[in-house]
Structures are given as structure tokens and as C-alpha cells.
Specification:
This protein is of the alpha+beta class and 279 residues long. The protein has nine helices and 13 strands. Helix 2 packs parallel to helix 8. Bound molecules: 2-oxoglutaric acid (AKG).
Length: 279
């Protein structure tokens, strides 16, 4: 499995993101989808918030990757070592989440930078990276992620709470939209988006007939260990696994009598708002 090429690394540095097509195979993604689909524990552990327009933003979030299929996706070398290329050294797992954007009701996400929240967690430098793995196809119709190319170069923008969501200062976002390209990140299942924590991004509500589930794994540079405790972990060694483990563990799970979210070691209290989930 090849890691990122020098061109992909340059794109990430220049644009604030890079899309890696087919990072996971159709088969791997199908096993993840089917596990998540039958996972009552994940369903129960998920939190729902109103997006302010009557639609539901639903996600399940956990800090430490376990030994099940979700853990294999977050710990496999093709993801972690690619992130380490982008961060220039050892990375550790900051948290992962499943964004459960359901057909017709999946809510919108306001423009924000992830570092807008993480900054408040004692993380000194924006040396983090998120990997969004498309579980379902993501299209404009079902509310794919939208990013402002190059916006990571603006540095951290203030975030202001409005309803349940903390969004980036809208005056700056509006000005940035006049100067930067807005890109709809259309993905097939298994495609992945690596993005910088200062990249401005948002997504529209899902008014379509198709769900848009995605897993987002977030990593921090080991050298960027937060200086204080927060609800996301300080440096914790990440035990990488071979890429083949994704299918091996995925099939072992689906054959088992019970498919469970419990491998995720969910430690977070169920959050009351997106603000709480993210900071
Ligand atoms: O999945 C989406 O539509 C948005 C998710 C997002 O922006 C985030 O988790 O920071």
C-alpha cells in the first residue's frame, strides 16, 4: 500500500487538503458500512443536535481506537503513516467520529475550522490532521463537505456560538469566500480527504434520498502534546496495525454473534451540543 506521494504532500501544504481516491477498497468500506448499520450500541451512543434549521446533526464520537473494525480503520498504517508524513513525525489518535448524516433529515454544519475548537483544549500548534473516510458516496445532493481551498493559510479565526453550533466568524468567512475557491468534496465510498485543522469547511443539509455517513479520524502530532487536560486525550501511544487487519477484523466481527460499538472504548459523556463535542 503506497503512502502519499511528494505531489500529494505538496497539495496538502498548498491547498490545506488532499483527496486520496480509493484509500480503502469497496470491500473494506462495505464491511464498515454493514458493521455500523447493525451496530445498535453505536446508534445508542450517538448524539443528535438541531442544526438550527430543523434538521438533525447526528454523530458518535470516541477518543481511543479499539480492536474492532473502527479501530482498524483509525490505526492502520496507510492512514496513520500518511498522517505522519503530513505532520512530519509521530502522530497519536486525538479522536474519531462517525458522522451519521441520514437521508432527508441529516443537518448542516456551519463554516468552521477544527482548530477553532481544539485551540481551546491546550493544543499549542495547529499540527493536527483529520482524515474523512467516505462510508457512503458523498455528493452535492446529500451534503458533502465543502472546503475553502487555501483557507488554512488564514490562521485561526474566532469561533462564535450560534444555537447549538460554534461557527467561524461569518464576516471573515464571507470575505474569504470572495477570494478563495469553494470546493465540494465529492467522494466515493473508500475515498478519503486529509485536511488541515485550519481549513474552513462546512456542509449543507441532506435533502436527498441517500444517507451520507462518513468516519472522521483526527490525529495530533506527538510533539504537540496539549499542555492541559481536556475531553480529548493528551499524548497516548498509537499502536498501528497492518493494513490487512481492516478486512480480517471486519469479517471476524460480522461473522460473530454480536456486532458492537464497545470496541471503541467510548469514554465521553454524551455531549449536549456540538460546541461541547468539539472543544
Ligand atoms: O461531516 C460533515 O458534514 C461535517 C463534519 C465536520 O465538519 C467536522 O466533523 O468537523
Amino acid at each position: 500500500m503506497s503512502l502519499l506521494t511528494p505531489e500529494q504532500i505538496s497539495s496538502y501544504e498548498e491547498d490545506g487538503y488532499v483527496i486520496v481516491r480509493g484509500l480503502f477498497s469497496k470491500e473494506e468500506t462495505k464491511v464498515l458500512r454493514s458493521t455500523a448499520d447493525h451496530d445498535n450500541a453505536m446508534d445508542k451512543a450517538s448524539s443528535s443536535m438541531d442544526d438550527g434549521k430543523g434538521n438533525e446533526v447526528r454523530l458518535a464520537l470516541w477518543n481511543h481506537p479499539g480492536d474492532g473494525i473502527y479501530g482498524m480503520f483509525a490505526r492502520c498504517k496507510r492512514v496513520v503513516e500518511s498522517v505522519e508524513q503530513l505532520l512530519g513525525g509521530e502522530a497519536y489518535h486525538y479522536h474519531s467520529k462517525m458522522i451519521l448524516k441520514d437521508a432527508k433529515i441529516g443537518g448542516a454544519w456551519a463554516w468552521h475550522q477544527d482548530y477553532g475548537y481544539w485551540y481551546q483544549n491546550g493544543v499549542l500548534f495547529p499540527d493536527l490532521c483529520s482524515v474523512m473516510i467516505a462510508v457512503d458516496a458523498a455528493t452535492q445532493e446529500n451534503g458533502c463537505l465543502q472546503v475553502l481551498k487555501n483557507s488554512h493559510k488564514m490562521g485561526r479565526v474566532n469561533h462564535i456560538l450560534s444555537g447549538d453550533q460554534a461557527g467561524a466568524d461569518s464576516e471573515r468567512v464571507e470575505e474569504a469566500k470572495k477570494r478563495l475557491d469553494l470546493v465540494h468534496v465529492v467522494l466515493d465510498p473508500g475515498d478519503s480527504l486529509f485536511f488541515h485543522p485550519n481549513l474552513l469547511h462546512c456542509s449543507a443539509a441532506n435533502n436527498s434520498e441517500n444517507s451520507r455517513w462518513a468516519m472522521i479520524c483526527c490525529y495530533n502530532a506527538a510533539a504537540n502534546d496539549p499542555y492541559k487536560d481536556s475531553h480529548h486525550p493528551r499524548y497516548t501511544k498509537l499502536h498501528k496495525v497492518e493494513d490487512e487487519k481492516v478486512l480480517e477484523v471486519g469479517y471476524a466481527h460480522t461473522k460473530g454473534s454480536e456486532v458492537s460499538f464497545s470496541d471503541l472504548k467510548v469514554e465521553d459523556e454524551s455531549a449536549q451540543s456540538l460546541e461541547e463535542l468539539n472543544v
